[in-house]
Amino acid sequence: MTSTYKDSPFHPGEQEIQRRLGTRERSEKIGQHAIRDHLPDQHREFYAQLPYVFLGALDRAGQPWASMQIGQPGFIQSPDPKSLEIRTRMVDGDPLSGQLTPGAAVGLLGIEYETRRRNRLSARLASADASRLSMHVTQTFGNCPQYIQAREFTLLDGIHSIGEPRECDEFTVLDSDAQALIAASDNFYIASHHAEDGDLPSNGADVSHRGGEPGFVQLLGTNTLQFPDYPGNNHFNTFGNLLLSPHAGLTFVDFQSGDLLFLTGHAEIVWDGPDVDAIPGAQRLVRFTLLNGRRVAKAVPIRWEFLSYSPRLNQLKS
Fold first, then answer.
1. CA dihedral for 180, 184, 185, 191, sign (positive or negative)
2. Is 30:21 a contact under the CB 8 Å cutoff?
3. Cα 206 from chain centre
4. Nearest residue to 145 via CA among 122, 112, 121
5. Chain-wide mean pLDDT for the chain?
6. Would you say residue 1 has pLDDT above 50?
7. Domain 12-316 class?
8. Residue among 83, 19, 25, 87 at smallest CA distance from 51
9. Which of 65, 133, 292, 297 has minimal CB crowding within 10 Å?
10. What is the dihedral of CA 51, 148, 311, 117, to 10 degrees?
């Protein structure tokens, strides 16, 4: 199968940023080749071996969240190159639990820390219930390994009982525990959404990985944080969405305790200025203001052993 894009695989927000930053022609050429309307066999096999995947979508109030779906390897299956199924219950306390309905736009990120491999896709839900999400793939592409820290995972017994009750706190300001997790994090996940172009394949939801050395996410108070945008693939999927719909969902994973920190709020792009210049390697910033958040204790029945930082991080300092 080959891609079927007669026009651009990028929506107007992505195209506008590509033009603004002088990458439009090159980005289009790469996108026409790299962005597919189906899952190649290697990507179908990749998802099937993962014990977790990140999902981005809107709740019924229209707020974006980044969710973490977890299960025994094999809980994700691709019946055919245009379809994907996730067969698991959501973590108790997940903000998207009970919020997804057929026709909803979702973004998916499969990431394997130990190999620094990742794949992203956009899709529409064909069906949704408490234990299975079936989706029709609209766009998919592989991502480069930069800024991913290598880790090895161990599954805990709780992998067999996803969805059991967990301690969950809701908040509108970041307490000391939330701030400590954010300050120590070397990665997080951001969900965004664009819905102004009808049924175009480029329309819909997205979730992506952001990585750096601990401290790359800066706290600016009890409800505001910011993080840099480092050089990437010049697709500007997240930034294109934020340009047109300045809302985002962030999720932080505590790799030692299994806690999940879910945030949703307003996202502002800071294109240049002293705040950007002060961060080595930063090309621009996102400043995020919290609207609502949830912390779910011991949500993830997986533990990770840190192996190494991405070699790409050293290049940001030079």
1. positive
2. no
3. 7
4. 112
5. 94
6. no
7. mainly beta
8. 87
9. 297
10. 50
